[in-house]
Amino acid sequence: MFLTRAKSAIRHMNDEKTDQNKAPESIEQQLHELLRNVTIIAPPQPRPQNPSATDEKPPEQSQETLKRIRQFNLKPRDIRDYLDRFVIRQDEAKKVLSVAICDHYNHVRRCMENPKFSEEEYSKHNIILLGPSGVGKTYLMRCIAKLIGVPFVKADATKFSETGYVGHDVEDLVRDLLKAANNDTELAQYGIIYMDEIDKIAAQAGTVGKDVSGRGVQINLLKLMEETDVNLFSQTDLIGQMQAVFDMQRGKEQRRRTINTRHILFIVSGAFDRLAEQVKHRVRSSQIGFASHETDNQRDSDFLRLANTKDFIDYGFEPEFVGRLPVRVVCDPLSADDLEEIMLHSEGSILSQYRFDFQGYGMDFGISREAVKAVALHAHDEQTGARGLMTVMERVFRNFKFELPSTAIKSFDVDEHTIKSPGETLTLLMKKNESAQRELLKQEIKTFSGEFEKEHGLQLTFTRDAVEAIIDICAAEKRSVRNVFAARFHDFEYGLKLIAKNSGQTSFSITKKIVSNPSEELSRRIADSFKQGK
């Protein structure tokens, strides 16, 4: 009801020029009246992978990025060499992507230099990436976008629907790209849109009725990948439409309402598991005799390289959709040796990430080559590509991260046995550093005493046997000194202040007996202070 009334009000405002008797103020008041009792709940926004990508940038930074696009002069080898720093293997994919990116942005540069080139027919180098999960498909494109400096948006194809009312509208991709460009429409029109899980929207054979999440999404994507003007206000963005009307009524300069997709590069990717089997069946059917057995030793990636347009159509894609993706790249699965290389030589590898994590606690660790190999072997067994590295590393270091920051240990070594039995290694490490840990706890007790005196004006002096007893409790219960005091001596400041009031005493000796029975001993001392007061 509200939506119908609001849209009707907007139509009336658009016709305001024909109604000179209605003042702009009264129209705005009507809209405010409609919105008065309506609560608009915004959908939760995903946490950005890179926080700086959504922070507002000064205008000059956007201008600097546009300048880099106008002066684009990278060569395919330049891009390939940059990707080698971050992504291990995928040599063929790097080569194909480097050429496609250079061709695309060289054309963009020419169009910016001379607008007449924009009017000429040009087929974009939209890309389809094929390969299993965790081989670096997304990472490749993120690195390329970072190198060029253009805005980059990644989305999962399964969240879109044909209508946009159930799920998201594909045009939201362009609007998200505008946000990534900090609402700079000129910069956004040269960005990169990446859609993962594209194989999940292939039309299923035998589907009855309208396929709003498969074929319909493909049809809508066709317009975006070729060229179209996308309205920056979606059909469900009622607030944005109203704000635009308010600006018009107040005489403000109208913001650009559309963005053209002519120079936006589209990349889609997916595992395409069924496609490999489909191509394998086709290839084997076309072979005769012993030649058919040669396919038994080939990998899925080998068959994906043999996929032709008809294979994609048989898989469930529209011919026009496949035709808009002329650049096809196959990423190879990663072997255990590849995962080992990623850990040792890739910039920003998971091994470097864990070093940074421990450095946050003032700690560091050394890891042997045998341990790295063991992690790679276990990660390969996970069958999730490079993502398996974090699965294994988390399993190994989980308890190390929990226990060690509260100890005196500042460095440790990781060997093959640590990967196999992390719990046993951690126990031995803690036992080996037990003496240093006791000294650390003694210092914490001294620190606590100083803080207690500063806060309450009462001095605590711990006897040697009391200190040892507190340390034993910390070790047995695996708790910090502060936590032990909070649990066992939580009412001490009140009791000691009462004793100080009765007797004038401000310095107290904490003995092992008090540590063992704090409530009983405190009660006895309070009773004695009342006797002294009399």
By DSSP (H or I, 4+ residues per run), the number of helices equals 26
Q: Which of globular, elongated, flat, extended, rod-shaped describes the shape?
A: elongated
Specify the CATH architecture of the largest domain.
3-Layer(aba) Sandwich
Tell me, what is the CATH class of the largest domain? Alpha Beta
CATH topology of the largest domain: Rossmann fold
Which value, in Å, is the CA radius of gyration?
33 Å
Low-confidence runs of at least 5 consecutive residues? 1-7, 16-27, 34-58, 206-210
The separation of the N and C termini measures 81 Å
The major pleated sheet works out as: 5 strands, parallel
Number of domains: 3
Mean pLDDT: 80
Bin the helical content: 55-70%
If strands are numbered along the chain, what order do they take across the biggest sheet? 2-3-6-1-7
What class would the helix/strand composition place it in?
A: alpha/beta
**Count of distinct strands:** 11
| Strand residue content | 5-15%
User: What would CATH call the homologous superfamily of the largest domain?
Assistant: P-loop containing nucleotide triphosphate hydrolases
Q: What is shown here, in short?
A:
By secondary structure, the protein is an alpha/beta fold. It has helices spanning 2-14, 24-35, 59-70, 76-84, 91-113, 137-148, 172-180, 185-188, 215-226, 238-249, 273-286, 300-304, 309-315, 319-323, 336-345, 350-359, 369-382, 387-403, 416-420, 422-432, 434-456, 464-477, 481-488, 492-503, 512-516, 518-533; strands at 127-130, 152-156, 192-196, 229-231, 258-260, 265-270, 327-330, 364-367, 411-414, 459-462, 507-510. The strands form four sheets. Strands 2-3-6-1-7 form a five-stranded parallel sheet, sandwiched between helices.
